[in-house]
């Protein structure tokens, strides 16, 4: 598949990587529009194809009192408002087969969370919506195993599929990125995305709140572009410390332009080899 099949995608012929970026979770309309407006301006200036990312509900939380969302329909309508306001495609994750058809009415790309990447019913349901399906590689899986998830989507009649690496479990409270997995999965004839945000998580903290290493965002992202990933996934917020989900490893919105400028320069160099 080619990313130019994503509705409303811009700059798909620029030779740049594409970007999935936005807040971890939709906390409200104003915050989503603020993040989308600034990110859209930066990516347009750099000719980076951009898809706004926001989870309408967070199903995988450590504690029962963790923030999960503002309400499914309300958050999905915010995603639609972002799309209509800025003429942008959008992506969100789903957590069950039943959610696929509902979310597909509001967004352009359906994302399968890493911990659900082997769930056949979810993959098939997402495929049957006809939307592009982005499957996150489970942190417990070898890159080679993703061919089976890809084939579940394709065998359901949908060739619009990509995969995202989000790190591999390293002990109980850390993740590492094995960059060998990017060319391995690209050989499966699908676009490969590197999820910078979740690759830097530190799960299973005793506090019940996931930690992170945001100081390594630039390092991991640069390496991903250098080894040939097709796209970058990252979460950004104008106030990460007070974000309601995954603030510990989100990029401050004020730092996004500088990071993307560096990544765009690396991609331009890579394109010459």
UniProtKB/TrEMBL annotation:
Q: What is its main location?
A: cytoplasm
- Which terms does the record give in the GO molecular function aspect? 3-deoxy-8-phosphooctulonate synthase activity
Q: Which reaction does it catalyse?
A: D-arabinose 5-phosphate + phosphoenolpyruvate + H2O = 3-deoxy-alpha-D-manno-2-octulosonate-8-phosphate + phosphate
Q: Show which residues constitute the signal peptide.
A: none
Residue ranges of every copy of the DAHP synthetase I/KDSA domain listed in the record? 8-263
Where does the record place it? Cytoplasm
Q: Which domain of life is it from?
A: Bacteria
Q: Which PANTHER family match?
A: PHOSPHO-2-DEHYDRO-3-DEOXYHEPTONATE ALDOLASE
Q: What is this protein called?
A: 3-deoxy-8-phosphooctulonate synthase
* Taxonomic path: Bacteria, Pseudomonadati, Bacteroidota, Bacteroidia, Marinilabiliales
